[in-house]
Amino acid sequence: MIENFNILFLLGGYSECDQQWWNRNASEADQCFKLYFPIEGHGKIKIRGKWEALLPDHIYFISGFELEAQQCDQLLNTYWVHFKPASILLTYL
After folding, report:
1. What is the pLDDT along the chain (93 residues), one digit of tens a residue?
2. Smallest Cα–Cα separation from 31: which of 71, 76, 68?
3. What phi-psi label fits residue 13: left (phi over 0), alpha (psi between -120 and 50 degrees) or beta?
4. Which of 4, 59, 64, 90 is the most buried (most CB within 10 A)?
5. Are 33 and 84 in contact (CB under 8 A)?
6. pTM of the model as a whole
């Protein structure tokens, strides 16, 4: 049971991503956790050397600490939230 699930909210919003949403190497700004809620199109992220699809109607919990790259070939409309853990329990997920 997690009794202390506090987070530090960094940013959030809605993005209409296209081919410009390309990141070959994650930066220090990516050193956080991310929730993505795609609603249209698709994109992909690379973690531990493996590409994973981001598809509509799914929720993705992404560790920016392991994010290697992100890419959108055409269109990805998504809601997103970036946060850091304030709880020690979340730090080791």
Report:
1. 456 667 889 999 999 999 888 765 556 667 789 999 999 999 999 999 999 999 999 999 998 888 888 899 889 999 999 998 876 665 555
2. 68
3. left
4. 64
5. yes
6. 0.78
